[in-house]
């Protein structure tokens, strides 16, 4: 994260230069992306273990909300300034187009599925988050302008959860149902994160997670896990329409509680994995190829992987793989896709050019004075 004005997965380069990265947020991003990868690795295995299913449910209740809250927090200063719009296009829209094309092509080859279609309107697997981030970012000035943004966002999410006619285009159900977490991030201040990082909260987080795991174990045969994906309306999950708004509110409360506990355990000091927080977009988008390759090739079907030691081994391997994908060498190789400059595609911003000239003039003046 280049500065305190970054987006959740990689960072917003529109932030003022010279401001140091916050180790806490880099640590939070890295730990959350590890949970994302581990959760995806659990999907082919969880049907054989009620304990694993419970852990999967708990992880899915807070890992994406944590990402989205951080994304909203670092989007507070986003406006329609040309340079920021360019970065939104090159840093979010372009990777979406590339990976929304790459994943279906990957399946055609690895899974021998030539019938797999490529559609930019139907986000595939991981790419829904890029669509959502693009939409949320564009609407940031609106949320900054209204008087009560969070209640309004919750109302929109509740209405969406009872409206199956929204359809699957651009995964709008997820965009709208996850919207309150982004808006909450917009409303937060740095001291809010300091509150949950107090020692008393860290101590309280342990029993909260124990209770959450126990509740998840109880809920496994009684609750549809699809509620945690926020990609369907209540009617599409076989529930009455009013269950959608109720579940949106209930899960928002539970997710916030567990997200606060997660943040409480995130170290605020620099650690061996802090630098990896700058590469979580790379880990997020690339680890899906590894998981899908295992799924297509039947790697997860081996009986030993469906036993406790096998599940632990898969979890560790998923964490190692996504960690490697966040490292600097991987970022250098794939930067042309994730962070293309594309200066040829945009008009030169006169205001930005003036700022560059002003900086150069100040630098020249300082050099003359020093001589």
Helix and strand layout, with pairings?
Blueprint lengths: L22 H20 L7 H11 L2 H11 L8 H29 L17 H11 L1 H6 L3 H13 L10 H6 L1 H9 L2 H7 L2 H21 L23 H23 L14 H18 L10 H18 L2 H11 L11 H21 L1
Helix pairs in contact: 1-2, 1-3, 1-13, 1-14, 2-11, 3-9, 4-5, 4-13, 7-9, 7-12, 11-12, 13-14
What's this entry about, in short?
The protein has 16 helices and no strands.
Description:
- With 371 residues, the protein is mainly alpha-helical.
- Helices cover 63% and strands 0% of the residues.
- It has helices spanning 23-42, 50-60, 63-73, 82-110, 128-138, 140-145, 149-161, 172-177, 179-187, 190-196, 199-219, 243-265, 280-297, 308-325, 328-338, 350-370.
- Helix 1 runs antiparallel to helix 3 (63-73) and helix 4 runs antiparallel to helix 5 (128-138).
- The longest helix has 29 residues, at 82-110.
- The chain is globular.
List keywords for this structure.
371 residues; mainly alpha; 16 helices; 63% helix; disordered N terminus
**Broad shape:** globular
Number of helices: 16
**Strand segment tally:** 0
What kind of oligomer do you see?
Answer: single chain
The pLDDT mean sits at 88
- End-to-end C-alpha gap: 36 Å
Helix percentage range: 55-70%
β-sheet strand percentage = under 5%
Order of helices and strands: HHHHHHHHHHHHHHHH
The poorly predicted ranges are 1-18
Structural class: mainly alpha
Radius of gyration: 21 Å
Q: Main beta sheet, described?
A: none
């Amino acid at each position: 994260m280049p500065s305190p004005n970054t987006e959740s997965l990689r960072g917003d380069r529109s932030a003022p230069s010279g401001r140091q990265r916050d180790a806490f947020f880099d640590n939070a991003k890295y730990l959350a992306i590890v949970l994302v990868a581990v959760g995806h690795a659990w999907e082919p295995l969880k049907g054989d273990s009620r304990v694993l299913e419970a852990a999967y449910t708990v992880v899915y209740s807070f890992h994406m909300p944590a990402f989205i809250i951080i994304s909203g927090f670092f989007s507070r200063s986003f406006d329609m300034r040309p340079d920021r719009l360019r970065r939104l296009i090159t840093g979010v829209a372009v990777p979406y187009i590339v990976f929304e094309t790459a994943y279906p092509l990957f399946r055609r080859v690895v899974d021998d599925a030539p019938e797999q279609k490529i559609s930019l309107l139907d986000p595939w697997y991981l790419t829904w988050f890029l669509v959502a981030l693009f939409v949320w970012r564009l609407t940031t000035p609106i949320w900054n302008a209204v008087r009560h943004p969070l209640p309004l966002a919750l109302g929109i999410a509740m209405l969406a959860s009872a409206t199956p006619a929204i359809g699957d285009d651009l995964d709008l159900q997820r965009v709208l149902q996850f919207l309150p977490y982004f808006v909450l991030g917009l409303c937060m201040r740095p001291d809010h994160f300091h509150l949950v990082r107090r020692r008393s909260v860290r101590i309280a987080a342990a029993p909260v997670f124990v209770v959450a795991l126990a509740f998840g174990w109880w809920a496994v045969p009684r609750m549809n896990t699809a509620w945690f994906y926020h990609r369907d309306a209540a009617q599409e999950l076989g529930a009455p329409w009013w269950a959608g708004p109720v579940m949106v509110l209930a899960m928002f409360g539970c997710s916030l509680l567990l997200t606060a506990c997660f943040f409480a355990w995130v170290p605020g000091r620099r650690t061996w994995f802090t630098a990896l927080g700058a590469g979580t977009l790379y880990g997020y988008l690339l680890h899906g190829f590894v998981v899908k390759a295992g799924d297509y090739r039947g790697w997860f079907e081996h009986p030993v992987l469906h036993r406790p030691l096998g599940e632990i081994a898969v979890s560790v391997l998923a964490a190692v793989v996504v960690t490697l994908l966040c490292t600097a060498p991987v970022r250098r190789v794939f930067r042309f896709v994730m962070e293309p400059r594309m200066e040829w595609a945009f008009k030169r911003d006169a205001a930005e050019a003036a700022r560059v000239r002003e900086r150069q003039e100040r630098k020249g003046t300082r050099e003359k004075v020093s001589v």
